[in-house]
Inverse folding.
């Protein structure tokens, strides 16, 4: 079966007029480079803008947007409605950011966000990716001549 799949892929790729593109979803970058999910990214930015508010305030904002979508787009089912939440939430956060940035002289997003991210990076370094790096080494050993890179490390 494996040989059939490899042969089929080789045939299809060799018939292309240009090289194919490989699309890798967010799960890949989240796992191997510790990139945040969309929800986490939006929450992180929201907390920088609203440092005194609690997570429940963010969740209430998100729920309000979900309710607004349900009432303004009743023709969509719940699964379709959820695709509108993050773009609208991002727009709301952008407006809050702009309002604060242009009206609050003490708002120093760069230093606040940098400090937060440096702390998170330090935590990831302390936790380490040893198991994944060992796994990458094993994959590389089993597949000589192939370039294997996991968690930013070349095996």
């Amino acid at each position: 079966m494996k040989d059939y799949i490899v042969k089929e892929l080789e045939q299809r790729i060799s018939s292309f007029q240009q090289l194919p593109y490989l699309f890798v979803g967010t799960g890949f970058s989240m796992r191997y480079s510790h990139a945040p999910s969309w929800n986490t990214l939006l929450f992180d930015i929201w907390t920088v803008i609203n440092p005194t508010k609690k997570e429940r305030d963010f969740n209430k904002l998100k729920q309000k947007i979900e309710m607004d979508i349900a009432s303004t787009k009743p023709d969509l089912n719940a699964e379709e409605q959820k695709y509108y939440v993050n773009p609208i939430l991002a727009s709301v956060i952008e407006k809050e950011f702009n309002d604060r940035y242009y009206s609050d002289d003490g708002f120093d997003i760069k230093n606040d966000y940098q400090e937060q991210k440096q702390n998170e990076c330090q935590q990831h370094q302390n936790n380490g990716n040893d198991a994944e790096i060992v796994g990458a080494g094993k994959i590389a050993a089993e597949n000589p001549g192939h370039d294997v890179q996991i968690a930013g490390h070349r095996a």
